[in-house]
Amino acid sequence: xxxxxxxxxxxxxxxxxxxxxxxxxxxxxxxxxxxxxxxxxxxxxxxxxxxxxxxxxxxxxxxxxxxxxxxxxxxxxxxxxxxxxxxxxxxxxxxxxxxxxxxxxxxxxxxxxxxxxxxxxxxxxxxxxxxxxxxxxxxxxxxxxxxxxxxxxxxxxxxxxxxxxxxxxxxxxxxxxxxxxxxxxxxxxxxxxxxxxxxxxxxxxxxxxxxxxxxxxxxxxxxxxxxxxxxxxxxxxxxxxxxxxxxxxxxxxxxxxxxxxxxxxxxxxxxxxxxxxxxxxxxxxxxxxxxxxxxxxxxxxxxxxxxxxxxxxxxxxxxxxxxxxxxxxxxxxxxxxxxxxxxxxxxxxxxxxxxxxxxxxxxxxxxxxxxxxxxxxxxxxxxxxxxxxxxxxxxxxxxxxxxxxxxxxxxxxxxxxxxxxxxxxxxxxxxxxxxxxxxxxxxxxxxxxxxxxxxxxxxxxxxxxxxxxxxxxxxxxxxxxxxxxxxxxxxxxxxxxxxxxxxxxxxxxxxxxxxxxxxxxxxxxxxxxxxxxxxxxxxxxxxxxxxxxxxxxxxxxxxxxxxxxxxxxxxxxxxxxxxxxxxxxxxxxxxxxxxxxxxxxxxxxxxxxxxxxxxxxxxxxxxxxxxxxxxxxxxxxxxxxxxxxxxxxxxxxxxxxxxxxxxxxxxxxxxx
Amino acid sequence: xxxxxxxxxxxxxxxxxxxxxxxxxxxxxxxxxxxxxxxxxxxxxxxxxxxxxxxxxxxxxxxxxxxxxxxxxxxxxxxxxxxxxxxxxxxxxxxxxxxxxxxxxxxxxxxxxxxxxxxxxxxxxxxxxxxxxxxxxxxxxxxxxxxxxxxxxxxxxxxxxxxxxxxxxxxxxxxxxxxxxxxxxxxxxxxxxxxxxxxxxxxxxxxxxxxxxxxxxxxxxxxxxxxxxxxxxxxxxxxxxxxxxxxxxxxxxxxxxxxxxxxxxxxxxxxxxxxxxxxxxxxxxxxxxxx
Lengths: 672, 291
Prior knowledge:
The complex is a heterodimer of chains A (672) and B (291).
Chain A: H1 2-63, H2 72-90, H3 96-121, H4 126-213, H5 227-269, H6 273-288, E1 290-298, E2 304-307, H7 316-321, E3 323-325, H8 326-335, E4 341-343, H9 353-359, E5 364-371, E6 374-384, H10 391-467, H11 471-499, E7 507-509, H12 511-526, E8 530-536, E9 543-545, H13 547-565, E10 568-578, E11 581-588, H14 617-627, E12 631-637, E13 641-649, E14 660-664
Parallel strand pairs in A: 8-10, 12-14
Antiparallel strand pairs in A: 1-2, 1-6, 2-3, 4-5, 5-6, 7-9, 10-11, 11-13, 12-13
Chain B: H1 2-22, E1 25-30, H2 36-54, E2 57-62, H3 68-75, E3 80-83, H4 85-94, E4 98-105, E5 108-109, E6 111-112, E7 114-119, E8 134-137, H5 143-155, H6 160-163, E9 166-169, H7 173-181, E10 187-191, H8 192-201, H9 203-208, E11 209-214, E12 218-219, E13 222-225, H10 231-242, H11 248-257, E14 261-264, H12 271-279
Parallel strand pairs in B: 1-2, 1-3, 8-9, 8-10
Antiparallel strand pairs in B: 3-13, 4-5, 4-13, 4-14, 6-12, 7-10, 7-11
Helix pairs in contact in B: 2-11, 5-12
């Protein structure tokens, strides 16, 4: 195409140049002829001036001394002009004939000057003067005749030259016109041809790209041509085929990867070695198209690699006889740098060659399964249904092998985890048991302490009754005894309630009311101290929850606060709504929680109360709040107090943040 | 003082410039000593040179008779003229013209003598033999004619009509020489320069003619300007003509005129002519110098 383009442009350029040159030549020739014509006209003008001068001089010869005399200076000027004109003409190039004529004219002019001058200057000799005059007149007439003859010749020449020029101008026009028309036509033909030659293949290309865009990979343009477009279309066809091949390859890879993914997913979802071996063998067959597949694994003592069961395409009894010494596998592994061993034509190098013959193996491939740089197994596939084993087969099996290795490790870890979990469960049970004992002890201590007072009262009033005979007094004492007994029963029930684990009994709970009952319980605990309780009940909606368990949480928080303050301080209890949560703040002005212990306060059995605490209070409270989709916020500053905020969702809101937020605070705003 | 000097200098420049600007074309008269057309043709290169060097256009005017240049100098408003010896002498006396330059040749100032020549075989061997013969003259205002009157004066004759049997004027030197040679006259008078030039070209002249008498040296030709000619232009013209011989273009124009240059002319250059006229008994005030 490039050559055609160049040739076409060259042709056009050559034609245009030739036409231009021809036109220039004609214009040059015409110009030259015009110049000659102009020169001839100039000569004619000179001749006419010469004739005018001669006629003027001749007139003077007749009119001298008459009223028509033009004056001497004028005549002299004309005669001098006449002579100059002849000299000018003589100075040009002429034909020999014309030169002879001009020479004759020049001679006549000289003679004329002599006769004229003599006629003018002679005096005193009229006859001589007349003779000069007549001589001058004769020469002048001859001069004019000669001039007329020359004018005739000059006119003929002018006519010829004019016709030549006209013809040349006409020729120039024709040449110019032909050149322009021909150039235009050829340019048009070239343009149309080139456009067709360019747009044809381009259209083919555009059409082909649409085919490919629509998914018709491998579409071939039927255009056959040479040159750049031919090459372009050949390249395009190659590209199309390459795209098709690549696409098929990608699809095949995707298929293989899909298979691989399915197989490996299965690996990671099974937990028994037998299942893994089965999945591995079937996957290897599917990926490579082999007829036999299986895995050899290093035995526990490490001396041998033995074939695992189940496998595919190998009889069970043969499987168990397939044992290879570990150094053989290790040598093959090390010598190939971990790359697969592919034996397509000669299977003699196979580590299982002794059995391969028995199994009718045509070709075999071993892909190593390594762990920490050592071979722990070898996947064996044999007798590919179509063709030979390839590096691609090896790569796929290697991926399968890696996944197998991971799955193997997972199974081992799983087994190990199961064992550890079992141990942990046992430990936890023991710990829970211990905690229970501790809780029971604490409960017993509390029960004893709480019940001791009413029992003391009962005992005292019972002794008083024994000594008192007044029935009114006895009745009043009995009332007190009854009251104290009921109080003891409530305490016992309350503690039992606290100690017993019960399922959640969800219902609408008025938090403020629950907190009031907590304050009542805490009042018993703080009655002998200078601890002030400051309650601030907000306008809060009822929330969905287990009233008893929430009560246990708040009682625990309040109890801890009281413990933290010792003999004096302020226990603040405040409720309010913030966002979608009901907030319950329990603050104290106690010693605060050391920063290094903040992260541990919700751990089971963690306590700062020594023998007075079980370490389960906050842990259980946390679980209760969590079971209500609530969260804990703890702020504390050493020496200034702590603030525990329980956030419980209003309605069915669920928590989407970490249920615990713990932060030390240097400026804890404790409300009094 | 300095201011006055500068002002005066610029005034002079202005006047000079105006004078030059006003005298764009000089009208110079010529005396028809030879064929009038050739004389003009010979002088055209000189005019072209002056115009090229000074910017002043020079136009020549010529009259058929020598004496007409005296009469028409004022009527034609000529700026100057190339006078021969006698017309120059008359112009100096009658018109008060100022001599400017005169030509020189390699031998010095160009001078001419007036010669009286006769045709051999005419039987004329002395001046007195001329009596009763046919004569031809250039012009009655030519120096050669004055020389003839001088000789006739010495012979005791007052005019040519009494002495010659017949005579006429050709108006130029060459034709005078050829008239004698052609037998139109027995005696002729011409300027020696022309006689010698023609004799050098035509051997017949030496062969057929003989010189009977010769005057002393007289100025050949002198360029004189009118008396009121602007001084600045006069100086420019004089300087141009005097330097002409040093300029290749000038040398070219001079060669056509057969001169090698120009020298400054002065009134005393006409002294010899004045003496000759006086010796011829001519009273310049009433001399009839036109034909």
